[in-house]
Each structure stands twice: as C-alpha cells, then as structure tokens.
Amino acid sequence: SRLQQEALDRVSAWKSRYGPKMPLAVDCTAELIRCKVLDSSGRLKSHELILSYGLALVRFVNLITERKQKMVSIPLRQLAREVDIPIWVVDLRHELTHGKLPRLALCRKGCDVVLDWLRKTYWSRQLGNNLCEESEDEEEEQEEVVANAELDNDAWE
What we know:
globular; endonuclease activity; mainly alpha; Las1; Ribosomal biogenesis protein LAS1L
C-alpha cells in the first residue's frame, strides 16, 4: 500500500508536468490503483467504492477504445474485442453508465482484470517482458475471475 501511494505521488508529479500529454495507460493505471488504495484503507463505504471503481473502469474503457473509433461509430464491444479487452468489462462499463450499480465484488474483479490487461499490454513493453511471465497459478486465478464475472453478468440480465 505504501509503495502504491508513492507510485501515485510520482504519477501526480508527472501529470503536473505533462498534463494532457500523459499516456492514457499511465493515467488509467493510476486511477485504478488509487481505487485499490482507497479500498484497502477502509475509509470509504461500499457505495463510495463502487462509484470510485466505476468511474475508473468507465474511463478506462472509454479512453482505450476511443483511439480506435473512426468517423463512423463502431460498437464498444467490437472495439474491445480488437484490443483484447474482455467483453464482460465492456458490459460492466455499460451497467455502470446506464444501469443499476453492480456489486462491489464485481467492480473489484473488473479492476483486477483491467490492471492485468494494462500490465500485459502496456507496462510489460515499457519495462521489459519479464512482467508478462505468469505462473500457472496466476493463469488459473485469471480464468476463475473471468468465469465468476460471466456468472455475475448473467445475473444482471
């Protein structure tokens, strides 16, 4: 938690220097980590955490897919597929934006999956591929997160 807070402080300093030129992946990572730090602090109520995670997840999906949007409107699900963002994360974004708020557990799972996507897609290239080497346990854990999220997705309907 202390290291995460130090990293957030460093990203805030970068943001003050670079402003809108800050890479989207860095900004999204910081917002998601900030949610995890707030969550572990115990200072926010469940509803406040859902809103915090929700905003970070909505911004992530919108900002990452926005660059691929053409003159003709392309559905978010298609754009997400093109960049390997799980469809259920797009569905979670849709619920956060247009539906009733999901459970905190689903927001936490979404945050973890998105942070993993950022690690594999952005950070591993920045810091070398050693970040992408996953153990079998991590892969099984990831599959379980996706399976649970798909179950939760069915519950929305």
